[in-house]
C-alpha cells in the first residue's frame, strides 16, 4: 500500500502540465534562505513520518536507494498533491510546484543536511 | 550459598552484562552525580537532533545533566522503571537505551530493531516492550538486563509483518497494540514469558495510527486514519471484541490535510469524558466514556496532535501539526471552551504536566526552548535552553498505567 510503485496521482500531474503549470525537473532553483527553510521542513516536518534521517517510519524511506526507481515527476507530484488512500498529505498549501520538484530532485540525489546555528 | 560466593557471582554476572553491551560507549561528560536525592521531580527531554537526553528537575526548573550518544532520537519516546530511576529510551534507529537519571548516565544500550517507534513497561516493572516498524512486531526485554525474553513478530499473514503502533501496558503482564498494515489489535499476555498468549482482534477499521488505554485500564481505543471513527475494546469483557465509536464523525465534509499524525497516547480522559483529536478536522471530539457517544466538538486552531488532560481533569491542553504548531490551546472542561491560546515558541512538539499539574512543560523545537508554564495563571515560570527539544517525560509516569 505505502510501498507499492504505482503513483495514481501521476495522471493529475499531466493534467497540471496540460493546463500550463510548470513542473520542470531542471528549472528548480531556490533562493538560499528558502532552500534552508525547505531543507528544514523536509528533515523536521516530513521527518515526523519519514524519519529525521529519512530512513522511514510510518511513511516509506526517502533515501536515494529507496527512491531509485521513482521518476522525479512522480515524486514531485506526490509531494505537491499527496497520495490518496495513504497518510501522505498534499503539501501544496505550503509549497509551490517548483519547490516540490526541487525537493524531489534533492531526495533522489541524497538530501542535504540542515545547517544548524 | 555463602556471602562470598554470592558476591563473586554478582560481580561476574555484572562483568558479563557489561561485556555484552558493545554499544555502551557514551556517558555523562563532566556531569557530577549528586550525593543523594529522590527521582520524583526529575524528568527527561529528548534532544532529537543531537541524540541526547536532557535530565531536568521540575522543582528547581533547571537542566541538571545531558546524556549523549543515544543515536537517532527523531520520534524517540521514553518509559520509566517502577522505581522511577531508569529511563528506557526507544530510538527511531531501533536502539533501546537505559539511562540512570540519578547517576546521570547511560547504563545499557542494545540495538533491537531496524526502525522503532516506542515502547511500554509492564505494570510489575519487569518487562520492557518495544514496538517496531522494521521488523514489524513487538520485542520484550528484561527490564534489568535488557536481555530479549520474548519476540512477537506481527505476522498477520504468512511471511507478512505489519508495522506496530499504539503499544500500551495493561494490568497484569499484558500489552495491547495495533497492526497498522493489517487493521488488527493484538493483546499479548506475558504472564509466562516463555509462552506468550496472543489474542487477535481483526477488522478493527482501516489504518489504526495510535491508541490509548483509559486510566482504569479498562478500555483500549485505537484511532483510525483510514476512516472516520475509532475502535474501542472493553478489556473487562470475558471475550474482548472491537466496537466502533464516533463512526463517521466527519461524514460529508472534505477532510483537511493531516501534516502530522495525532498521538493518542497519554490520557485525555477528564472525569467522564474523553477528549480526542479529530483526523483531518480542526476539532477536538468529546466522548462520554459511559455511553461512548459523541457529546460535543470543540473547534481548535489546527490539526490537533496531542490532546492531554491536566492530571486533575480541569483543563485539556492541545498542540497542533505544522503550520499551526507555534500555538497551544487550553480547553476549560466544565465549559468545554477554549479559554486561552499561548505561543510559547516555534514548533511546539510536546507538553508534559508536573505530577499534580500545577505546571506544564512545553517543548518548542525551532526555538531550542522548553517553557514551564503555570497552568492556573498561564504565566511563564521559566525557560530552559535545550537543543531541538521534542518529547518531555517526567518520572511520575512510572506510576501511571498506559504511560
Structure description:
The complex is a heterodimer of chains A (117) and B (403). Chain A has 117 residues and is mainly alpha-helical. Chain A has five helices and no strands. Chain A has one domain (10-23, 31-109): Cytochrome c-like domain (Cytochrome Bc1 Complex, Chain D, domain 2), CATH 1.10.760.10. Helices cover 47% and strands 0% of the residues of chain A. With 403 residues, chain B is mainly beta. In chain B, the strands form nine sheets. Chain B has a four-stranded antiparallel beta sheet, with no helix packed on it. A four-stranded antiparallel beta sheet of chain B has the order 4-5-6-7, with no helix packed on it. A four-stranded antiparallel beta sheet of chain B has the order 8-9-10-11, with no helix packed on it. Chain B starts with a helix and ends in a 9-residue tail after the last strand. The A-B interface holds A 1, 41, 44-45, 47-49, 51-53, 55-58, 82, 87, 89-91, 93-94, 114, 116 and B 48-49, 72, 74-75, 92-93, 115, 117, 133-134, 163, 165, 180-181, 207, 209, 225, 257-261, 322-323, 347, 365-366.
At a glance:
The complex is a heterodimer of chains A (117) and B (403). Chain A has 5 helices and no strands.
In total, how many domains does the architecture of chain A comprise?
1
CATH topology (fold) name of chain A: Cytochrome Bc1 Complex, Chain D, domain 2
Radius of gyration from the alpha-carbon trace of chain A, in angstroms: 13 Å
Classified by CATH, the class of chain A is Mainly Alpha
Q: What is the share of helical residues of chain A?
A: 40-55%
- The H-level CATH homologous superfamily of chain A, spelled out, is Cytochrome c-like domain
Q: Using the coordinates above, name the CATH class of the domain at 114-257 in chain B.
A: Mainly Beta
Q: Give average pLDDT of chain A, whole number.
A: 80
Low-confidence stretches of chain B: 1-9, 11-22
Quaternary organization: heterodimer
CATH architecture of chain A: Orthogonal Bundle
Amino acid at each position: 500500500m505505502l510501498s507499492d510503485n504505482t503513483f495514481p496521482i501521476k495522471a493529475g500531474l499531466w493534467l497540471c502540465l496540460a493546463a500550463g503549470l510548470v513542473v520542470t525537473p531542471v528549472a528548480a532553483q531556490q533562493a538560499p534562505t528558502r532552500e534552508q527553510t525547505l531543507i528544514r521542513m523536509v528533515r523536521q516536518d516530513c521527518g515526523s513520518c519519514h524519519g529525521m534521517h529519512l530512513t522511514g517510519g510510518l511513511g516509506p524511506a526517502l533515501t536515494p536507494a529507496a527512491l531509485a526507481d521513482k521518476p522525479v515527476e512522480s515524486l514531485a507530484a506526490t509531494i505537491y498533491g499527496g497520495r490518496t488512500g495513504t497518510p501522505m498529505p498534499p503539501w501544496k498549501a505550503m509549497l509551490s510546484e517548483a519547490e516540490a520538484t526541487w525537493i524531489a530532485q534533492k531526495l533522489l540525489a541524497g538530501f542535504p543536511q540542515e545547517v544548524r546555528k | 550459598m555463602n556471602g562470598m560466593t554470592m558476591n563473586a557471582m554478582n560481580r561476574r554476572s555484572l562483568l558479563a552484562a557489561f561485556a555484552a553491551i558493545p554499544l555502551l560507549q557514551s556517558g555523562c561528560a563532566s556531569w557530577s552525580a549528586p550525593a543523594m536525592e529522590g527521582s520524583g521531580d526529575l524528568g527527561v527531554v529528548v534532544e532529537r537532533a543531537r541524540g541526547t537526553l536532557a535530565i531536568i528537575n521540575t522543582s528547581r526548573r533547571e537542566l541538571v545533566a545531558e546524556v549523549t550518544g543515544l543515536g537517532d532520537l527523531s520520534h524517540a519516546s521514553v518509559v520509566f522503571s517502577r522505581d522511577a530511576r531508569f529511563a528506557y529510551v526507544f530510538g527511531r534507529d531501533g536502539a533501546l537505551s537505559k539511562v540512570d537519571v540519578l547517576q546521570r548516565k547511560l547504563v545499557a544500550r542494545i540495538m533491537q530493531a531496524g526502525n522503532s517507534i516506542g515502547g511500554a513497561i509492564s505494570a510489575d516493572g519487569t518487562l520492557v516492550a518495544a514496538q517496531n516498524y522494521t521488523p514489524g512486531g513487538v520485542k520484550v526485554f528484561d527490564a534489568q538486563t535488557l536481555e530479549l525474553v520474548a519476540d512477537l513478530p506481527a505476522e498477520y499473514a504468512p511471511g507478512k509483518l505489519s508495522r506496530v503502533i499504539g503499544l500500551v501496558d495493561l494490568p497484569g503482564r499484558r500489552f495491547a497494540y495495533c497492526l497498522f498494515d493489517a487493521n488488527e489489535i493484538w493483546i499479548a499476555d506475558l504472564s509466562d514469558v516463555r509462552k506468550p498468549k496472543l489474542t487477535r482482534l481483526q477488522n478493527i477499521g482501516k489504518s489504526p495510527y495510535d491508541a490509548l488505554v483509559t486510566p482504569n485500564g479498562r478500555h483500549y481505543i485505537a484511532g483510525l486514519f483510514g476512516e472516520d471513527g475509532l475502535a474501542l475494546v472493553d478489556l473487562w469483557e470475558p471475550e474482548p471484541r472491537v466496537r466502533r465509536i464516533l463512526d463517521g464523525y466527519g461524514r460529508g465534509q472534505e477532510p483537511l490535510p493531516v501534516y502530522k499524525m495525532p498521538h493518542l497516547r497519554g490520557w485525555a480522559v477528564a472525569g467522564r469524558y474523553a477528549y480526542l483529536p479529530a483526523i483531518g478536522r480542526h476539532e477536538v471530539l468529546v466522548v462520554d466514556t459511559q455511553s461512548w457517544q459523541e457529546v460535543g466538538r470543540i473547534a481548535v486552531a489546527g490539526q490537533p496532535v496531542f490532546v492531554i488532560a491536566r492530571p486533575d481533569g480541569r483543563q485539556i491542553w492541545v498542540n497542533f501539526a505544522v503550520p499551526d504548531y507555534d500555538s497551544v490551546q487550553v480547553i476549560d472542561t466544565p465549559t468545554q471552551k477554549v479559554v486561552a491560546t499561548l505561543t510559547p515558541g516555534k514548533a511546539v512538539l510536546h507538553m508534559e504536566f508536573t505530577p499534580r499539574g500545577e505546571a506544564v512543560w512545553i517543548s518548542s523545537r525551532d526555538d531550542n526552548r522548553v517553557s514551564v508554564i503555570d497552568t492556573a495563571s498561564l504565566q511563564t515560570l521559566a525557560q530552559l535552553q535545550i537543543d531541538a527539544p521534542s518529547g518531555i517525560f517526567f518520572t511520575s509516569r512510572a506510576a501511571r498505567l498506559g504511560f
